[in-house]
Automatic annotation (TrEMBL):
GO terms for biological process: response to oxidative stress. InterPro entries: TLDc_dom. PANTHER family: NUCLEOLAR PROTEIN 7/ESTROGEN RECEPTOR COACTIVATOR-RELATED (PTHR23354), TLD DOMAIN-CONTAINING PROTEIN 2 (PTHR23354:SF65). The lineage of its organism: Eukaryota, Metazoa, Chordata, Craniata, Vertebrata. This is TLDC2 protein. Pfam families: TLD. It comes from the Eukaryota. The gene is Tldc2. Residues 1-155 form the TLDc domain. It comes from Pachyramphus minor. GO terms for cellular component: nucleus.
Amino acid sequence: LPQLGPHLPPQLTQQPWYLQYSTRRDGFSLQTLYRSRGQPGSPALLLIRDTEAQAFGAFSSTAIRCSSGFYGTGETFLFSFSPELKVFRWTGRNNFFVKGDVNLLMVGGGSGRFGLWLDGDLHRGGSQRCETFDNETLSPREEFCIQDLELWGLA
């Protein structure tokens, strides 16, 4: 988390974060993740480690929730540690920041490709270059298996 500090919106850098949801503690379920969300409108940090020990994730400027359409702001970004931190910011090309339904959580999109997506049981996910962030693939493979996932929110 400390490495991401300089990349967060300035008003958040001194705020305390707490672990809202963790697959180790809470099990593998997107529904449980949605239920664990913090204050409405409060930002969220999603940290993922895949089964190849690659770490990556997303910062969402608003709480991660179930939605019928995309939500969020241009402060949202994707990141990976491979091996050093890389941050992929909003390009301004579209507003496909975050969208979640019962079976899928997506961050970033355009032309049918998602910067990051996670399935409903949080076992599988994927990453492709997308128009929202013009990101590199976050994990070594376009589809990955999730070993650990954590959702952090503001205390």
